[in-house]
Known about the structure:
Number of strands: 11
Strand content: 5-15%
CATH class of the largest domain: Mainly Alpha
Bound molecules: fe (ii) ion
Helix content: 40-55%
Radius of gyration: 37 Å
Distance between the termini: 76 Å
CATH architecture of the largest domain: Orthogonal Bundle
Shape: elongated
Largest sheet: 6 strands, antiparallel
Amino acid sequence: MNTAKYRILCVDDESRNLALLEAILMPMGYEAVAARNGKQALEIIRRDKIDIVLLDVMMPLMNGFDVCKEIKGSEQYRGIPVILVTALTSTEDRIKGIEAGSDDFISKPYDKGEILARIKMLLKAKELNDRLSSAYKNIISLTSFGENIIKTFNPLDFNLISKIDSVVSQIIGRKGDAPDKPQTVIVNILNEKGGHDWYYYQFISNNLTSDRFNPNISFDLSKEEYSRVSFYNNLEGEIRFKSFVEKLKAFNIMAKNMVCYLSYNISIFALNYGRDINEHDAAVLDSLVMHTLFLRSLSLQIKEVEDALTYTVYALARAAEANDDDTGNHILRVGIYCAVIAERLKMPKNFVDTIRLQASLHDVGKIHVHPNILKKPGKFTDEEFAIMKMHTTWGAKIIGDHPRFAIGASIALNHHERWDGGGYPNRLKGGQIPVEARIMNIADQYDALRNARVYKPAYNHETTYKIITEGDGRTMPHHFDPQALQAFKETASKFEEVYEKLKG
Ligand SMILES: [Fe+2]
Ligand SMILES: [Fe+2]
C-alpha cells in the first residue's frame, strides 16, 4: 500500500504521546497531523482531508467519546475511521467507545506493530467504502443523466459537440467534488474535413469552459483494438503517452493520471482525478461514450430515413408536374414561402418543417389531368375547367390518409379555396379553410405571378407584391386569409430572395 497519500490525525492532550505517534507513523510514510484537543481536531477534520483519526479518550474539555460521536454523527465525515487510543480497559468503557461509533480500540501502552496493522486494515476498508459510495453516487447521477437524455433526445437535431459538452459536464470535477473526479477533460473529435479537433474543458468559477486548442498530437487510432477505455494511475510512466504528456505540458496542462477512451472518431481523456483511479472510473466513461455513440448512430439512421422520405416526396411532386408548365423549382420555392409565412404566424416548428416539405405535393393530382388541358394556351371550356378543378380532390386521394401526410393532403385538397368563399372544390370560407391551405394559397399565387404562363407574362417582385396586396381584378386581397396576407407583407423581401435564389 502506498502510504504517502494518507493523512492521519493524532489527537492527544499530551505532547509526549503525540511525538510518539508521529515517530511511529512518519517513517512508514504517513503524514501525521497533530491536534491537542477535541475542538481543534474537529476543526482540522472540517478543513483538511483526513483519512483516519487516532483519538485519545481522556482529554480535558471534550473527551474522546464526544469527539467520536461528533465525527460519526456527521453525514460528511462519518466515513473517516476513528481508533480510540486509551488506558481505560474496562468493558464499560469499551461499550461506550462502540456506542460513540468508533471503528477500533487500542489500549495504552500500545504495540507499534499492532497500531500500524490496525491503521492499514481500516484504511483498506475505508478505501473500499469510499469506492462503493462513489459508485453509488455515480449510478444515481448516471441514471438521471440518462433519463434526461432520453427525454430530450431529438434524432433530427442531434449535435455531437453539444452532447459531448453534456457528457463532460457530467464527469468533470466541480469545486465541491474535486477529489473524486477529473480536473481536466480533453476531447478529440474527427471533423467533417477528416481532420481532428481538440477541445480542452475545465470548470472555472462554476462554469464549464471549453477551448479549442491544437496540441499537435497524433495517435495511431486506426486499429480497432483502441476503440475502448483504459486507465493509468501513473501516466508519466506510460511510454505510449510520453509525447502526449509532453505536449500537454507545453499548454501548462499537467497530466498525472488518466481514464481515456480512444477511437478514430472520438477520443476522450479525463485527466487528474484527485485519487487513485480504478476500473469503475473507466466503466463510467465507457458507458457515457457508448451512450453518446449509440445516440449518434441512431440519429444518423433516422436522418437517413428522413432524407429518403424527403427525396421520395419530391420525386412524387416532380412526377406530377412533368406535364405542367411549372418550372422545376416551383415545388421547392412554394414550400419555403409556406415555411416563411408559417414561422411569421408563430406556428410550431414541427408544422413549419412539415409544410416546407409537404406543400410540394399540392398539385400532385394534376397527374390525372391530360397535358392538353394543362398546357392549353387559351381559355378553358367549362368542361376543361371542371376537370382542372378535380386536381385538388385527386391530389388528396393520391396522398391518402397517413397521419404523417395530413398537412400535405389538406393542402392538396384546399389550396384553391378562397377566404371569401369563391374558391374550389368545396367553396369553403374563412376559418373553414385549414390554415396550411390558406398559407399555401398565397405562396402558390406569388410564385405563379412571378413565372410566365401561357396566359400571362412573368411579373417582377414589385408588381407581384402590388397584385397580391392591392389586387388586379383576377387576384384580389380578399381571396386571402388576412393574417397570412399580413405575414406575407412583413416577409415579402424573403419571398423575393427565395425566388431569385431558386429560379432554376
Ligand atoms: Fe393547384
Ligand atoms: Fe402550384
